[in-house]
Design goal:
mainly alpha
Length: 296
Amino acid sequence: MSFLAVGETQNTVTAKNVVSSFVDALKKQSSNELTKEVATHALDKLQSRVSTFEDSVVQLLQYLAEIYETEQNWLKSAHVLSLVPFDSGRKQYQADFKMEIYLKIARLYLEEERHVDAEAFINRATSLIPEVTRKDLLIIHKVCSARMQDYWRKFDDAARRYLALAYEPSIHPDEQLTSLRCAINCAILSSAGPTRSRQLASLYKDERSQSLPAFSILEKMHLERIIKPSEVEEFSSLIPTHQKAMLADGWTILDRAVIQHNILSASKLYYNIALEELGALVGVSPEKVPFCTMCV
């Protein structure tokens, strides 16, 4: 590559200008396949001279990652961005820029449901919060953190975080509604108790909830009414795969949450009830009823 040959024989300023012009010209190419091939080759050649061309290397990595993202190749895009040399020690990067890249990588991993990888970059971003000045980055961080709590089945905390985002005035109303929907899902899946009751009450009182598909089951949980199997099945179709995971006891997360709710609801209706009747009411076999009541 001729521009690298110039970099080896000319002074540093000239070499940087040549490489910078090359990067600008590459961004104007219309062929993604050609751009990927040339950018990858250039990055390989520049690897031994990153200290000299660090700014151009970072630009190339960002542009290459952007192309992979448009192709929905989330993993490749995340990998490319992870090569930005923040730890080289040769250049001081602003906290805002570092956090932007870390969160972008985290979100790309989340698209592929690579939550462990995503969490590593969310944690890096978290350490930068005291230095960050851009509010939009702090909002993105809150979204990523809520999704992580959701994934790790910490539904109480996830619901709280999503609910806060649903009232965040700086984000678009559509995104607020998405956060509200996620908050409802997580609150429904939470373990029975005072925390869930408070969250359900807040969500039920929000007028926007009435327009969401999960409102009927939200209403029944809040008003402590028995939830029917058909309603559970309908709600199950609305939630993502990780929220339907099978637990060690043979029930799904949703099954357990609904059974706990139904038993508590039944306790408000009956002072005395046979195991067979309670099992039929909450949708479990009589022999499992004692175990269910222990879980409440």
